[in-house]
Write a structure and sequence with these properties.
4-stranded mixed beta sheet, 5-stranded mixed beta sheet, alpha+beta, 152 residues
């Protein structure tokens, strides 16, 4: 009975970073994150917290109206030690690959580039405990569109 209550509590709880936790059919924990982006080059979250060893299901929603060629957004989670500005300068040259450098080893996970009214979802395993940086790699966006991805 306590197990059922705990599962129901996890299914209906939401914390301040718009992250929810559920159990999938194999009882592995899945952390669901909804991250919004807009035409003013902003994410609605500046910090995302997850637990080590969980699967992260991240949905990026572009709540603006502009097309991706003008105001495209993505979510790029960088590995520890990767310099945000250096990565962004390299990414801006990768237009044909949605501003994700080909054959890079600097990324943990990334979404597709989306435009206004679109959304995309990815799943990835949370990296080891620590603090990571996430950005939008569309040219020039990283300076305003970045945040901390904290694994506890």
């Amino acid at each position: 009975m306590n197990y059922l209550f705990a599962v129901l509590l996890m299914l209906f709880s939401v914390n301040s970073t718009d992250v929810t936790k559920t159990l999938d059919t194999a009882t592995k924990e899945v952390t669901e994150v909804v991250l919004e982006s807009n035409d003013q080059m902003k994410f609605n979250l500046s910090e995302i917290k997850v637990e080590a060893g969980t699967t992260v299901k991240l949905t990026l929603k572009h709540v603006g109206k502009l097309p991706k060629q003008v105001m495209g957004h993505n979510f790029v989670l960088l590995k520890k030690g990767v310099e945000m500005k250096d990565f962004a300068m390299t990414a801006m040259k990768a237009k044909d690959n949605d501003y994700i450098p080909e054959s890079t080893d600097q990324i943990i996970a990334n979404t597709a580039l989306i435009g206004g009214g679109e959304s995309t979802t990815i799943e990835f395993e949370a990296p080891e405990k620590g603090e990571y940086i996430f950005i939008c790699s569309f040219p020039g966006h990283y300076a305003l569109m970045n945040g901390k991805f904290i694994v506890e």
